[in-house]
């Protein structure tokens, strides 16, 4: 309730991702986050398409659950402020993606031609206000040492998303920094 942007993002991005994965596989190449095509051929439209729709269903599922959990910020801030936060995080994380790829190539000599596609930068950016403004409430303890809180599932989903791809750490770091 009272989170129309989160629900729209959840439904539209998931539906497009499922359609691209199941029915329209030959159109997936247009949604690939190909950095080489962006830098060399100036295909800026790939920056928009590659950073909005996930091409992996596991990433789609995890990011959809995270968007659903982060709808609390849209309720707190309002749809306008939440959408401006997402847009700002999306643009800044795109810039940081390119910078981190260049830094990785310069320092380690690793050439990265493409990154995992999807709305992952803003999703990881939402972990910062989640960590700082959502209070931690202990639900139970496991084995007497590990406490399970109301935030545990969200962090486990973020960790699952972080470990789902080879270079997704670049997207995560750029989202957190943005």
Characterization of the model:
One of its GO terms (cellular component) is membrane. It is a multi-pass membrane protein. This is UBAC2 protein. The protein is mainly α. The chain has ten helices and four strands, in the order H-E-H-H-H-H-H-E-H-H-E-E-H-H. Strand 3 and strand 4 form a beta hairpin. Helix 1 packs antiparallel against helix 4, helix 4 runs antiparallel to helix 9 and helix 5 packs across helix 6. It has a single domain, classed as Rhomboid-like fold, CATH 1.20.1540. The mean pLDDT is 89. The protein has a two-stranded antiparallel ribbon. It has a two-stranded antiparallel ribbon with strand order 3-4.
Overview features:
serine-type endopeptidase activity, 4 strands, globular, 65% helix, transmembrane helix, Rhomboid-like fold, 178 residues, 7% strand, mainly alpha
Biggest pleated-sheet summary: 2 strands, antiparallel
Number of strands: 4
Please identify the oligomeric state. single chain
Estimate the global geometry from the Cα principal axes: globular
The structure class reads mainly alpha
Number of helical stretches of at least 4 residues: 10
CATH architecture: Up-down Bundle
Helix content estimate? 55-70%
Assign the CATH class: Mainly Alpha
Q: Average pLDDT across residues?
A: 89
**Portion in beta strands:** 5-15%
Supply the number of structural domains: 1
List low-confidence stretches: none
- How far the N terminus sits from the C terminus, by CA atoms, comes to 28 Å
Q: What is the succession of H and E elements?
A: HEHHHHHEHHEEHH
Radius of gyration over C-alpha positions, nearest whole angstrom: 17 Å
CATH topology name, in short, is Rhomboid-like fold
What strand line-up does the widest sheet have?
A: 1-2
């Amino acid at each position: 309730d009272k989170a129309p942007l989160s629900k729209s993002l959840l439904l539209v991005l998931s539906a497009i991702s499922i359609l691209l994965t199941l029915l329209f596989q030959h159109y997936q190449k247009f949604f690939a986050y190909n950095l080489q095509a962006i830098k060399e051929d100036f295909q800026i439209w790939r920056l928009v398409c590659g950073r909005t729709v996930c091409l992996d269903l596991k990433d789609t599922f995890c990011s959809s659950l995270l968007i659903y959990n982060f709808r609390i910020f849209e309720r707190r801030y309002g749809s306008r402020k939440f959408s401006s936060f997402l847009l700002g995080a999306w643009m800044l994380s795109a810039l940081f993606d390119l910078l981190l790829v260049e830094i990785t190539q310069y320092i380690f000599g690793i050439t990265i031609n493409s990154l995992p596609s999807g709305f992952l930068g803003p999703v990881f950016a939402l972990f910062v206000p989640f960590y700082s403004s959502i209070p931690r409430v202990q639900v139970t303890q496991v084995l007497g040492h590990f406490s399970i809180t109301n935030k545990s599932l969200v962090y486990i989903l973020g960790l699952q998303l972080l470990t789902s791809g080879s270079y997704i750490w670049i997207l995560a770091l750029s989202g957190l920094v943005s």
